[in-house]
Design a protein that fits this description.
33% of the residues lie in helices and 27% in strands. It is of the alpha+beta class. The chain has two domains: 15-22 and 77-154, PH-domain like; 31-71. Helix 1 (31-50) runs antiparallel to helix 2.
Length: 168
């Protein structure tokens, strides 16, 4: 009989602080949003067919399908933890050696309460973690022990602002 394989437990350090965050931000979209998105999609499809750019047409159709399928479900809550070795998001671990710096944008009146991590690898996208109801001061104090803080970031990135406006 084949032996039962045991899962290898990896030690990512001791948790300093942690909380649950949604896997992604889900925006409430009105009927007007869907009508506008459908019109824009149709116009882009017509343009792509008129210019004989069939790959663009396929990309538009796939993007539309992804948005529709993605909109049907609710985001899963995942655990975010800061340990003495790095950060853990769900099942993914990032060592502090991979992270360039962090920044906290905390403007509750504007609805922005996020923790950002920039990676040393330029090909890796910035990581945005909602603070939710967490106090940013102990988070900052603990992260300063391991990472540099980007004090120049005072607002959320433009890409996040645009995504919030367009509800993407």
């Amino acid at each position: 009989m084949p032996e039962k394989q045991e899962r290898l437990q990896i030690d990512y350090g001791d948790e300093i602080i942690g909380w649950s965050v949604p896997e992604y931000t889900k925006y409430e979209r009105t009927k007007t949003w869907y009508i506008t998105a459908s019109i824009i999609t149709a116009l882009l499809l017509i343009y792509s067919l008129w210019t004989a750019n069939f790959l663009f047409a396929v990309i538009i159709v796939i993007a539309g399908m992804v948005i529709i399928l993605h909109d049907g479900g609710d985001p899963v809550m995942v655990r975010f933890s800061i340990t003495d070795e790095g950060i853990i998001i769900g099942r993914k671990f990032y060592d502090f050696d991979e992270i360039k710096n962090f920044s906290i944008v905390y403007k509750p009146k504007k609805g922005v309460k996020n923790l950002y991590f920039e990676f040393k690898n330029a090909l890796r996208h910035r990581l945005s973690i909602p603070l939710r109801d967490m106090n940013p001061l102990p988070i900052r104090e603990n992260l300063l022990k391991y990472l540099d803080e980007d004090l120049e970031r005072t607002d959320q990135p433009v890409s996040e602002s645009i995504a919030k406006i367009l509800k993407l």
